[in-house]
Design brief:
Structural class: alpha/beta
Helix content: 40-55%
Strand content: 5-15%
Oligomer: single chain
Largest sheet: 8 strands, parallel, barrel
Number of helices: 21
Shape: elongated
Length: about 575
Amino acid sequence: MVKHQPLQVYEKQPCLSFITGIYGCRWKRYQRSHDDSSTWECAWFTVLCSSFLLLLFWAYFWLEAHNDYNEFNWSLYNRSGEWRDGTVPIFASTAVGFSYISFLMILALCHISLGQQLNLYWIHKIGVLAALLTTISGVVSINDVWGDEWDIILLSLQSTGPFLHIGALAAVTALGWLVAGQAVRAEKSRFQMMVLLLYVGLLLALYVAPLAISSPCIMDRSTLKPRPEVIGRRGAPMLAPENTLMSFNRALQQGVSSLEADVTVSMDGVPFLMRDHNMRRTTDVSKVFPSRQYVDASLFNWTEIRSLNAGRWFLESDPYWTAQSVTERDRSRIGNQTVCSLVEMLRLAARANRSALLNLRRPPPEHPHHRTWIMDTLWAVQRSGISQKRVTWTPDTDRGRVRGLQQTTNEKLSLEELKVRGISSLTLHYSQANYRDIQMYMANNVSVTVYPVNEPWLYSLLWCSGVPSVSSDAPQVLRKVPYPIWLMSREAYCFIWIASDLLSIAIVIGIFSIQKWKMSGMQNCNPEQIMLSAVARRPSRDVNVMKEKLIFSDINGGSSADELCLYPENGYASYSHSSH
């Protein structure tokens, strides 16, 4: 008995082999399947999607938090006592994890598009789970160490919201191809209906999302306020060591309107500039006075303080990643910087006809000038020769003694409290400065300064909000922002919103129509037509699926006497008859 086995014609599919091989280690054709994915694999796909969304949120947070990287490192320094750039390992691990999870997401969507069964390889399952748990632990840790920073997400959405909305709408519209492919299948299931309803609900939510998006940059151009003045926060600490004369000179070169400094008082009553409680981070006190390196900075006399180097740390630790761009001449100057006194800074501001904003820290109780620190500071202001109207006073202690100076506070107070305390301006963290409050304060002649503002998008947003001045570590960056990054009228924004929604609706309808048409064409084809046309034209994916099922059913059944054989070399298909 001679029985001719059917010859199977398969197209080479290197792209499909790559997709299924990388995702599920299924490199061979017989390892792949067009059957529905199991519940277990669908659950892993859900975990993959959750990891992707969480990592997307995490990456967005760290991109927007770039404004405060130095504040994050400083908070770590205050906890550990050692200065290190904690953003580098976080950013590196986030980039690696997000790239890996995004790649798996693309492969999973390709599986769905090609009708392949999802079967994530066990190594990838470990990787996805590790990425998810690592990200969750990172979120919990940041919430503990730097919980106030979450406010920057809501603030940044006022700047990025309109563009993120268009991007999300484009992505969800494109996903309509996969959803439509599942929804138009002949076999209906609850899962299909759930996916369809979820997709439609998501689309509708995106269509009306602009109703919840508000931004001060959506405004009439004619109502835009003047460009906010920039205050050099500790000078220009990205260009030179903070709170040094060189840093303040660099800030003046960048056109700042005022200089901001942190002031404390030495043992012998000399006000000097120092941000930290001790001098380990910004001086060489650990080498000169190793036994006193953890002692409060104010418990040194001025002679001892003046003997310390306040510049070499900047070149060694490179806190802002800018030291490499410093010229050799400037490196020599930086390496010879000393701690700056308040009088020196005020005299520099007076010569440049600029103002000064003073943040004072009271010495500890055992300090000999614990009770007279305000008078010591006022005496330094008088000695410097600067006009008192150009000096802004921050501390709330003994305001009655400093009536000649401009009064400000870091607290967000009501108008009544400001009037009672005699305060004419506020210095607020950007998380406290919302648009309505800024407009209220400005309408009542209360000036508002917002800090820290180091990124162009935040500066632009505050500019549109009407803020008159900002305090920045990066005056050289804000100097390059002559106009808000984006500004559009309400009418223009509504037009873009409606146009993008209508375009999305048209594309989604077109996608579902094409998928329905393709499926109806498949349902009109009988098995014999599919087999006979296999060598005459390049089959579609759905035709390939039906062809393979027919061929394998013939092989497994073996009950038919007449079996189909395909002879590619002859360019046509024919039947061979079994002989007995």
